[in-house]
Amino acid sequence: MTVLSYDRCCAEIVTQTDLLRSRVKGADLTAPVPTCPGWNLSQLLRHVGGTHRWGETVVRTRAAKPVPDDLVNDVAGYADERPDVLDAWLAEGAARLTDALRAAGPEARVWTPGPGGTAVFWARRMLHEAVVHRADATWAVGEEFTVEEDVALDAVDEWMGFGSAPELVEPRPGVPPLLGPGRTLHFHATGTAPGAAAEWLVDLTGDAVVWRRAHEKAAVAVRASPTDLVLLLYRRRAVGDEGIEVHGDAHLLDLWLERSGFWLRE
């Protein structure tokens, strides 16, 4: 069960993209994006618009196998675009993706590069892709970033799903094993509304990674606001930063963060 409904995810794709567009309006798009080394704002925006068109193609065509993602990361030639052209391109991509998702419906079977196999995956993934890159752009122009509580909580939920994939525990040369006795992690999004699903337990003690929403003692506990917790998972914040409390085995936390982010590097 997700925190956000399918319809809300679809709507938030446009909302988050509009917030991103407004944040960079009037900015120097050749300015570097420190949290995305090698990219400037122009290239970051091209990447976001490219993900929209990638997802839209998959959903609209009901693709059953991988679709080329050239528009997603091949942004080297887009370092100095006209702001008005890029802004319109971003808006169009978000609208096209949202229209395709709504036309398909949540149960539509499509290829997904992660668990799910339905249009729900794309609605959720494209939403949180926009959220995190809005943070990147916001910091690049020297502003403060925040995101609504329920959107942040859903982003953590999505990460937990990726963070329990079988790929996490596959042996890798020179990489310490993730699973082992006593290895548990607890995450608590603080300051949330009463009744919010704001605590997660990651259990590494068995043969696979298992997570659940729970308030339980663990080998390491992390407390942070919903926004900061998302940014920590995506390595936009770090252990030791103001507002992020870590109690217990920080080395286990570092190991899990590194391994659970495998899908961002592949």
What characteristics describe this protein?
266 residues, alpha+beta, Four Helix Bundle (Hemerythrin (Met), subunit A), Nonspecific Lipid-transfer Protein, Chain A, metal ion binding
Please sum up the structure shown.
Residues 11-137 form the Mycothiol-dependent maleylpyruvate isomerase metal-binding domain. This protein is of the alpha+beta class and 266 residues long.
Low-confidence stretches: none
Q: Which CATH architecture of the largest domain is right? A: Up-down Bundle
Estimate the helix proportion, in percent: 40-55%
Distance between the termini: 26 Å
Reading the helices and strands in chain order gives HHHHHHEEEEHEH
Quote the CATH topology of the largest domain: Four Helix Bundle (Hemerythrin (Met), subunit A)
Question: How many DSSP E strands?
Answer: 5
How confident is the prediction overall: mean pLDDT? 93
Strand share of the residues? 5-15%
- CATH superfamily (homologous) name of the largest domain: dinb family like domain
Helix/strand/pairing category? alpha+beta
Total domain modules: 2
Under CATH at level 1, the class of the largest domain stands as Mainly Alpha
**Number of helical segments with 4 or more residues:** 8
The best one-word shape is globular
The largest β sheet comes out as:
5 strands, mixed
Radius of gyration: 19 Å
